[in-house]
Amino acid sequence: MDSESAYALLSLAALTFFYLATQACLGGRSQRQIEEATMLPFADDEPVARRMERATGRSSTGCSCPGRCDGGCASRVEMDA
């Protein structure tokens, strides 16, 4: 086996490893939980959070309700850290 083939095999193995690691990390989450988690970084900056809520229609508080949520709705899901 020459070095070019070994490099190609190593690259393929690394790509497969990262794909499987990502699937293992995100595989247990529902699409709703992933979408809620994507909005959490915007919760710290109020003007940016409002712009993101208007642009996406999702709440930045971790709730799947449209717009601003006070946390009392039935569809609120607590995210595990």
Descriptive account of the structure:
- Helices cover 54% and strands 0% of the residues.
- The chain is mostly helical and 81 residues long.
- The longest helix has 24 residues, at 3-26.
- The N and C termini lie far apart (45 Å).
- This is Cbb3-type cytochrome c oxidase subunit 3.
- The chain crosses the membrane at residues 6-26.
List the helices and strands and how they pair.
Elements: H1 3-26, H2 31-39, H3 46-56
Organism: Metapseudomonas resinovorans (Pseudomonas resinovorans)
Transmembrane segments: 6-26
Protein name: Cbb3-type cytochrome c oxidase subunit 3
Write a brief structural summary.
This is Cbb3-type cytochrome c oxidase subunit 3. The chain is an all-alpha fold.
